[in-house]
TrEMBL record:
Residues 37-48 have a biased composition (Low complexity). Keywords: Endonuclease, Hydrolase, Nuclease, Signal. Residues 1-21 form the signal peptide. Residues 98-234 form the GmrSD restriction endonucleases C-terminal domain. One of its GO terms (molecular function) is endonuclease activity. It comes from the Bacteria. Residues 27-55 are annotated as: Disordered. It comes from Streptomyces venezuelae. The keyword Nucleotide-binding does not apply. This is HNH endonuclease.
Length: 240
């Protein structure tokens, strides 16, 4: 598929893109309403044993069905729900926090959370896994940080999600195992490409990228193409 189509299928969602002059940042009315239900912020933000070890990922990869993608032309982002949802049984689901807030709380360091709403991250720093760049985050300020579906929604659709129920697609789109905070420009370049067409610029991350990608495909019983499988084998070979 073309780069424009791949970009449309990438399911890119900006974590924070609205500038504000408020210092310190203030919660809006929607945020204030959320404080009335204390979030279960201690809930697990990943499945046990995820991402899999290299040996486990190699075993999972051997068991995946190899097939060419299907129905790429019917993909629409709306098939996976409209925006983020906490109402799923995926890791981080039903914990009172927005999915993107869960990603921030998990992936950023030097966190500063709002005292009234522990879901809301006021500031922090991301070490982008794909490039190694240090990216600052400030609540309600323009940010270079986006939420990436490691196996993009379009890629998942082609690999079998086209046949899922709407509830399963909504769960996938909000599963923290599938998501990473990442650099915006790199995420655009990644789009919905599979590893045979795109790999992280930072080679030190290739092992974990292969483990995460394979773990996601195995968790959701998605297919892989033959070139994709070879690329994943190459990524996992960097694990030693």
């Amino acid at each position: 598929m073309g780069r424009a189509a791949g970009t449309a299928a990438g399911a890119v969602l900006v974590l924070a893109a609205v500038a504000t002059a408020c210092t310190p940042p203030q919660l809006d009315r929607a945020d204030a309403r959320r404080t009335s239900r204390p979030p279960a912020t201690a809930a697990p933000l990943a499945s046990p044993g995820f991402p899999p070890t290299a040996d486990r990922a190699r075993d999972q990869l051997d068991r995946l069905t190899v097939a060419w993608g299907k129905n790429w032309q019917t993909y629409q982002r709306s098939e996976f729900g409209e925006g983020w949802s906490d109402e799923t049984d995926a890791p981080g689901g039903r914990n009172g926090c927005d999915t993107r807030d869960d990603v921030l709380r998990r992936d950023l360091r030097d966190l500063r959370e709002d005292a009234r709403n522990p879901c809301a991250v006021l500031s922090g720093t991301l070490r982008d896994p794909y490039t190694g760049r240090e990216l600052p985050y400030h609540y309600r300020r323009a940010s270079q940080i986006q939420t990436d579906h490691v196996v993009a929604l379009g890629a998942a659709w082609r690999a079998g999600a086209w046949a899922w129920t709407p509830d399963r697609r909504l769960t996938y789109a909000n599963d923290l195992d599938v998501l990473l905070a990442a650099d915006k420009e790199t995420n655009y370049a990644k789009s919905s490409w599979t590893p045979d067409k795109w790999k992280p610029p930072r080679k030190e991350y290739w092992c974990e990228y292969g483990r995460r990608w394979t773990g996601i495909k195995a968790k959701y019983a998605l297919t892989v193409t033959a070139p994709e499988k070879r690329a994943l084998q190459e990524l996992l070979a960097t694990c030693g």
